[in-house]
Structure formats: structure tokens, C-alpha cells
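Record type: ASSEMBLY
Status: queued
Input:
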Amino acid sequence: MITIKNLFKQYDNVTVLNDINIEVFDNEVFGLLGPNGAGKTTLIHILATLIKPTAGTATVNGYDIIKNPSEVRSSIGIVFQAPSSDDMLSGYENLKLHSLLYAVPKELREKRISEVLELVGLTNRKDDQVKKYSGGMRRRLEIARGLLHKPTVIFLDEPTLGLDPSSREVMWKYINRLVKDEKITLILTTHYMEEADFLCDRIGIIDKGMIIALDSPTQLKERLGGEVIEMELANKYVDKVNIDHLLKQCNFVRKIELDAKKGRLLIYVDDASHNLPAILKILNNTNNTEVESVELRSPTLNDVFLKFAQRHVTRKQGHDEDEDDDSEGGFMERYAQYGNK
Amino acid sequence: MILKEGLWKDMLNMETNNRWIELELVKLYAIWLREFKVFLREKSRLIASTFTPLLWLFVIGEGFGATTDLFGTARFAADTNIGYQQFIFPGIICMSVIFTSVFFGSYIIWDRKFDFLKSVMVAPVSRTTIFLGKAFGGMTTSLIQAAILLIVGFVIGIHYTPLSMVFIIIIILLLSFTLTSLGLTLGSHMESLEGFQLIVSFVVFPLFFLSGALFPLDNLPTWLSILTTLDPVTYGVGALREVMLGITGMNSFAMNIGVLLLSAISLGTVGALSFRRMRAV
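Status: finished
Output:
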């Protein structure tokens, strides 16, 4: 459905997108996951023909984004990061305007407008001015507008940015339903791991304009080494060899890290919630090992990110070590800053 | 012309260029309709932009009119009994057109700020259509504003005939198309709202003051005279003054209309080209 080939984008001397190659399949939900400034929105804008790439190209629905922009535009729907409806007009009027701009045939206009209003649950508010809508309603109106002309691909740029947790869940439900009901290919950008996890078939992790990992959510988390159990031990002088030995007998334990000075034990396991009791049992039976507190962590965006971004940085440094540290928009540096606070 | 094929191609059986033109016209209408609806709903804009010209007409008009006898000895016949207030009335109409049109055009900066423009530019609509839709919106807005003032004209003793009405409307439309195009051109090159004040100081007020809206152009010093010839509004004021008051100024009526037509075409072209080059995001 979408093929991106060797795509570059530079502003002045800053490389915003660096050799992007992605293939998105029909009816797939594809997520672009990355921090702010990673290049997600730029990539979406290029695919939507709003910006021209510096080099390389892409096809959307079989049309080249540089040679056939008009055909690409007719094939896609897009929901921008910030609501772009006219808030002086009503929801219905906004949809009507776009049905005309997208040349939806006259006899289908009203039917299609009611359909999408129904889909996003705005039918009873359709005649209110958009400025009276809540943030979540505006976002849903944008989605309705994106779907209005029956696009084959829809882009959602940070669909839940700025929404409260309950609105976010509602939004997820809508997105899931529309993928089922409308049978379209969906590209979404996000910096929430759980969102990408919940919605996407595959995720491309993007940082500093490069795709640093591309896989299904399960595979990505798998590559992190499963879930983490973090324990604080009462006695700081534990017998590491012994613990290692005992825990390694369990086939669900992948890796053990012990920080003896702080008395902190990190255990990487599969299915932590079910296997935790077994681990506690083993530790209780070990001399000198009294567990004071237990924390259970699933891999988060930070973990996934750190893992892939770190590896990427290491690999890159191997190639060109003397490169300047122009880390504008880089995740690692900002993460480090947060860490220091 | 290359046939633009949309997703609805099969359904529409879009085989001819006529169909394409028809669709672009529908899109043009859509953009115009949006501008018109927004204008009707923004009451404060309508009230504010009607009030300022009235202030000029009555305060400056009556104020200067009370002490200035510009015309008793000037080349205008003394028996026309045209006072200063009547004399500046066509100028005030043009002032209303300047303010409404240029501001309307540069309001595109707001459209960009609120991302509305992006949502239009990502639709399969040609940039020229977007430009024309906006320009027609500006013309409609200006005409409505001017119509309110034209009604006020009765109060100060302006006489209209059906023929003069037709000419007045044509002149206002030409002038507002020119000035909306100017505003849209400026707006399409501006990224932020900070430039707005510059437009007011360096475009709107000079256009108004140099147009001869407030004074006759006959006895001006050379430098001022040259500047007034360069201002397209001068020809609008001249034409309106002739139609409304029967005063022939520096230029003939044909000359006035000719220059207006020429400015409309050239600024319209510049505007459409600016829109094609305008960055979407």
C-alpha cells in the first residue's frame, strides 16, 4: 500500500529524515513510534504530499508522491496533530466543506456524512459550532473528516495527544472499530508505547530521522528480554553465586543482575505475574536472603527506546567517532537530562 | 489540460475536462461558502469595520467640512453644492474596501496558525482554486461592508441611479479583488502574526492616504502626485467620485476603470502564483 524508498529530508543543514525505507502492507495498522522531533510528522507530511522530500520517493496506493500528488491526495485521509477544523463552522458544515473539496458525488454526500458522524459518535452534536466541542470531540471530528471520502489509507498524527486517559481509551476503541469497519490501511504516529502496542500490527521505531527498529509489538518487547522483577533485599551481602544457581534452574528466568552495594536484584523473566510467587519461594528458602520490597515492571517505551537507541548510538559511534554531538531531538540526551533531575 | 482522476473516477465516469472544471467550480464554491459563513458569524469584525469608516465620514467629514472651503474656488463648479463630507464619501467607501480586503487576505495567516489551511491544502484542490475561492470571499465581504455605507450615503445626500449603482458595484468588486489579492499575497509569504502590524502601517494606511480619498489631487507637490499615481486605490476613488458626484478628477473614467482592471488582473496573477509556491506546513 505504501512503499518508502531511500527517503531523505534536510532543512538547511539539519537532516530530519535519514534514508527511510518502509513497506506498509494493505489493511495494516502501522505505527511510527518515537520521541518529539524524531521526524514522525515530517514523514507523514511527505507521504501526504505537503512537503517534498530532499531525495528518494514513496508511493501511496500505487501513486508516486512527487509525480502524482493529486491522486495521492484523493487516496488518503489525514488527521493532523492539532485539530484543523474551522471552529466557526459546525461539525456538519466542516464535513460538508470537505465532501465538496474531495468531490464526493452529490448523491452520496449526505449519506456519507451521516455515516462518519455515526461512526465517531457525533451525530447529536453535528449542528453545534466546533468551538463548543471538547478536545476529544474535535479529534473525533477530524477522524470523521479523514474518512469522509473513503480513503484507502488514513494517517493519524498523534491521535491521542493531549487527551485524558478515558478519552484516550474511547479514541482507541474508535480507531480499532474503524480499522475493522472501513477496511483501510492506517498509519499512526505516537510516542506512547502502550498506544502503539494496543493498536498496531507493526511498529517502526524512529529516532533522529532514522528507523532503528521495525517489528511487531510482541517481537519488539521480546527482544528486550521480557519483564523485569526488581527486588530490594534486606541483607546486602548476599551470595550471588547461590542465587544465580538457584534461579537459573527455572526456565522462565532469562537474566539476573545483582547490585550488591544497594542490595538490589533485577530478574528478567517471562510472564512475571505468574512466576513471581515461585521466585519468592526460592529466595525465601535461601539463607541470608530476605526480600524487603518487590516491584514488577513491563517494558515501557523508555526501555524499548533505550535499548534500540543505545545500540544504535554505539554502532554509529563505531563508524564515525569524531562526529559532533548535534543531538537536537535525540532521545538519549533528553532521557539523560530527565534522569538527572 | 491533464485530467485529474480521483478515487471516485469509476463512479463519476469522469471522462472529460468539462467534468474536471465542474468539480473545481464546486470546490471553489465550497471555499467561498466557508468564508461567507465565517464572515456572517464574526459579528464583531463586521461591526468594527463598519464603525471606523462612519467615524471618518462624520467626524472628519463634518469637522473639516465646517472650516474648509475646498471647492468654492477650485475647478469644481461652485454650484454643485458638494460639501467636504460628500466629497470624501467615495474615498470612505474605498477606505472600507481597503481595510476589509487587505485584512481579509492577510487573515490567511490565522488559517495557517489554526491548521485549517493545511487541511485544505492536503485535499485534491488546485492552489488557484483555493486562491480564487478566498478572493471571491473577500469581494463578497467588501461588497457587504460597502453596501452598508452606501445606505448611509442617503443620509448625507448622495443620489443614486440604477446605472450608477451598477458602476459602483463593478468598481467596488474590481478594487476589492485587487486588494484581497494583495492581502493574500502578503499573507502567503508571512509565517507569523507579527508581520500583521507591518501590513497595517506600510500597506493599508499608505493605500488609503495616497488615494486622494481625503483631498483633491489637482494641486499636489510632484513627489506626492507621483505616489498617488502608483496607488491603485486612486483610480477606484476617482471612478467612484465621478459616478456618485459627477466630479471628473485627474483621470478620465475609462482610464480609471482600465487601470483598476489591469491591477485586478496583475495582482490576481501574482496572488495565484504566490499560492502555488506557498509552503503548506
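Annotation: Confidence is low (pLDDT under 50) at residues 319-341 of chain A.
Annotation: Residues 301-340 of chain A form one domain.
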